[in-house]
Amino acid sequence: MAAQTAARLVRALEEVLGGPVPLRVRAWDRSEAGPPGGPVLVVRHRRALRRLLWKPGELGLVRAWVAGELDIEGDLYEALGRLAGQVWERPAAPAPPLPRRLESRFGLGRELLALAGPLPPPPPPREEVRGRTGLRHTLRRDRRAVSHHYDVGNDFYAQVLGPSMVYSCAYWDGSAYGDAYGDAGGRPVMTLEEAQEAKLDLVCRKLALEPGQRLLDVGCGWGSLVLHAAREYGVTAVGVTLSREQAGLARKRVAEAGLADRIDIRVQDYREVGDGPYDAVSSIGMAEHVGAARYRLYADRLYALLRPGGRLLNHQIARRPEPDEEKYRMDPFIDAYVFPDGELSPVGRTVTLLERAGFEVRDLESIREHYALTLRRWVANLEADLPRAARLAGPGRARVWRLYMAACALAFERNEIGVNQILAVRTPGSGVSGLPLRTRDWRG
Fold first, then answer.
1. Catalytic residues per the record (predicted)?
2. Active site residue 408
3. Is 289 inside any structural domain?
């Protein structure tokens, strides 16, 4: 009977997923079934099935993954690619009562229940965000959401991001996209650190930074952009973040660089900044936290903080438009474990709201493929020493980040999401934008 466990499991999972299981499956008793070759889905404990019974689809599987009850042997990217159509894009399941629903909807409901063992399901792993109350994107709730994502240990992020400590997509040479891992001999075409420095410099050139100007970096992270701008372009800079751990390390880096007299790092919400005007504002990978309901306020606030003729560089992940925008919901895994209350918008909506705030949008550059390459490098950094990552941030958190970054890399590669740099100007009444006639001249 034990030898049939995996075969029974595959049949039951096919009923739950509504299609064939695209991976070979190994059950907790070491029995195997399913298509040979390729990655193997390892079900380490029957508790994983109890999670799936109560949360069919993505969230149930993710909870089992975070708890270590599910694993992948082999190529994680290939496994996620095979699962994409059956799990990640399926709609959420209806509400309980679940046993009766299984009995009516799935012919093997009883068998899955028998394999799963006693109900009810175990509680979600502790890394899941809980207890969210009140309106989204208030100052207090945003602080808590940002803390969940970023205050997990600077050493953990240093392992993932590398020495650059930049947590947004790098900017790669054109030749680098041909092979994510290097040239024909396996040698890196461009290091992650080189590509991140290229991105920081691109932002500075688009903003046309000059000595003596004031730069505001909204969502400054660990201070990499303000450090680059002060050191290479001679500006004075203010960086704001809601993460105390980020701010602590950013201030340390600023002091070590001897730039404390020109860079101010604050734990502050963008809505609380009141010392404008600035010559330039950068927002790199921060606007995803703002929320659709608050985006016009965000755009209005940044417009007000700029002097006439000042420039905004808004670097933001974008999703594809939904047929019914009212039904858009953030991915349940990312909302529960990664970016609580995060929201993505189509790039067209972002441009519209910036223009309604008064900005003149002068340039939009899609760098989607660049983020896919960056994420693959981050995953490689994490996988280079998974035991250390688990010690630094906890086993569940390390598993969350590995799954999240690998899945996002595939989403960027498949054009399911994108990322764009939008250059906008607070053009004065004279109509003189201050930009060159050939805007792409900033590439050098």
1. 408
2. yes
3. yes
